Amino acid sequence: MTTTTATPALETQARITAEIAEAQAATAPGAPQPRIDFPPYRSSVLRHPTKDPRHADPEGIELVAPVFGHSDLDPVEADLTIQHGGEPIGERMLVTGQVLDGDGRPVRHQLVEIWQANAGGRYIHKRDQHPAPVDPNFTGVGRCLTDGDGVYRFTTIKPGPYPWRNHLNAWRPAHIHFSLFGTEFTQRLVTQMYFPGDPLFALDPIYQSITEPSVRERLVATYDHDLTTHEWATGYRWDIVLTGTHATPLERADHE
Amino acid sequence: MSETLAPTPGQTIGPFFHYALPYAGGPFLVPAGTVGAVRLHGTVYDGAGAPVPDALLELRQADPAGRVPRVEGSLRRDGRFTGWGRAATDASGRYAFTTVEPAGVDGGAAFFAVTVFARGLLDRLFTRAYLPGESDDLLAGLPAEDAATLRVEREADGSLRFDVHLQGDRETVFLSYPRHRS
Fold first, then answer.
1. Nearest to A102 among B17, B106, B179 (CB)
2. How far is CA B38 from the centre of its chain?
3. What digits encode the pLDDT tens for the residues B74-114?
4. Do B11 and A56 touch (CB under 8 A)?
5. How far apart are CA B116 and CA A35, in angstroms?
6. Residue B95 CA: distances (Å) to CA of A198, B17, B55
């Protein structure tokens, strides 16, 4: 590798792996969210709030999510493989799942946005300098609305893993970024879906920032052979749970 | 019914969201030149006081009469005021929305609800940007220097400035709500 005086030497994977173990050992079991102060993820060091969030009772505008409807998007946006003149390179796949709130109710007719690297692990982004091919037939951006059962569905290409500069030999596990809205502004979620059996999981400080193994595993999709279609695409299923709403039980019953 | 399902954990928005989430018109809750339009702008800073060029803010707000918009069309507004917008920071860590000043809903204080995302930030953050002169129980319960981080400042040109400090001496107060577990 090349280093210059302007570029500090990168830590080894062994060092980062030791830091991951240390940070996880220092965290109480069962933590339901990532540790936002997670030093092995170097970019988090100066970007995490140091104080606990202040408890607030949501009011007014916070209790109502923005409304997205069919006028906001084109149905073809749910198929990332038909946005250009030709077929993208890579493993075509279907990704689907149900979005639920914390009470198990489907989150209906809400916007789901995804973005991802191409099969070679390259983003269509001017700052992504990973020397992997750009696929002219794949942008990696999709949108859809959940249906009346809270189900989303995308057709896309399996993204590749890619290197990044967090430490020496850092490679991110393949993932798809997801952006979700619930029925309240307070339910907003941005997260990442991963693929089963990825050998990079143990080495990745972003994935490992979720210190509880059972919680981490909730970000891993399930391969679903019944969803896989003959001579066309593999299938993955991934359900998402947003936080609970503050609606009264009566109002909630009305929506059942 | 008590909460029975644990929420899916968050993850960072990463560095490469710019080609996916920002969209034409995202920061324009109303068209520039609208009567009563105001610019809400600021800079996102990290713990060293450096601007954060890969952050994204989302805004949710009532209209000037304190009504909560429940209309679709935030991605393709077509003149509708939906009370929601999205703006990425630029190379200098700055963001800007063009909007109207909200009134409080149901007698509450007037504020913009704000969500903050960034590379390096492992889960989204919620905060409030209160209009000048507003007060409520949340602000009253905070030390003055913390409450100040939630107040929008009116600049000489009439625009509203709201800086976000992810960390440091002027760290913004971020919020959690009942039924969140963190």
1. B179
2. 15
3. 999 988 999 999 999 999 999 999 999 999 999 999 999 99
4. no
5. 17
6. 37, 15, 9
Q: Which residues on chain B are in Cβ contact (under 8 Å) with A125?
A: 15-16, 18-19
Spatial distance between the Cα atoms of B40 and B52, rounded to a whole number of angstroms? 18
Residues A32 and B6: beta-carbon distance below 8 Å: yes
Residues comprising chain A, all counted? 256
Token pair in block for residue A75 = 């149905």
- Chain B stretch 7-36, residues whose beta carbon is closer than 8 A to a beta carbon of chain A: 7-21
Tokens read off for A243: 């936080």
Distance from CA of A212 to the nearest CA of B (A): 11
Question: Is A194 known to be catalytic?
Answer: no
Give A96→chain B minimum CA distance, Å: 16
Find, among A92, A98, A68, the residue nearest to A80 by Cα: A92
CB atoms within 10 A of CB B118: 30
Q: Does A128 touch chain B (CB under 8 A)?
A: yes
Q: Is the pTM for the entire model greater than 0.90?
A: yes
User: Would you state the pLDDT for residue B182?
Assistant: 54
Of the residues B1, B2, B8, the best mutation for testing chain A's interface (the one with the most A CB atoms within 10 Å of its CB) is: B8
Residue A42 CB neighbour total at 10 angstroms: 18
Rounded to whole angstroms, the Cα distance separating A189 from A185 reads 10
Residues 6+ apart with CB under 8 A from B9: A32, A33, A34, A191, A210, A215, A216, A218, A219, B123
